């Protein structure tokens, strides 16, 4: 197995891990239905698919 030649310092380890944190998804509210949904995603409400506040498709 490979072994490191030198100890990795705390600052170098922290720099490597700086982009590993998780962020919560942004939630938008539909202006027509008032339902929460993800930004740039269509959502279904009462048999209709909405995108940007407009009916895109009728579900059966």
Q: Determine the mean pLDDT.
A: 93
What low-confidence regions span 5 or more consecutive residues with pLDDT below 50? none
Write the element-wise H/E pattern from the N-terminal end onward: HEEEEE
Number of strands: 5
How is the biggest beta sheet arranged?
3 strands, antiparallel
Q: How would you sum up the global shape?
A: rod-shaped
Going by helix content, strand content and strand pairing, the class is: mainly beta
Number of helix segments? 1
Order of the strands making up the biggest sheet? 3-4-5
Radius of gyration: 23 Å
- Specify the helix fraction band: 10-25%
In percent terms, what proportion of residues is strand? 25-35%
| End-to-end CA span | 59 Å
Structure in words:
By secondary structure, the chain is mostly beta strands. The chain has a domain at about 25-60. The protein has one helix and five strands, in the order αβββββ. The protein has one helix spanning about 10-15, and strands at about 25-30, 35-40, 45, 50, 55-60. The strands form two sheets. Strands 3-4-5 form a three-stranded antiparallel beta sheet, with no helix packed on it. β1 (about 25-30) and β2 (about 35-40) form a beta hairpin. The model has no long low-confidence stretch (mean pLDDT about 95).
């Amino acid at each position: 197995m490979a072994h490191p030649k030198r100890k990795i310092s705390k600052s170098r380890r922290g720099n490597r891990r700086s982009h590993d944190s998780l962020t919560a998804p942004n939630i938008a509210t539909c202006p027509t239905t008032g339902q929460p949904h993800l930004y740039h995603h269509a959502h279904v409400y009462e048999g209709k698919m909405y995108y940007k506040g407009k009916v895109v498709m009728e579900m059966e």
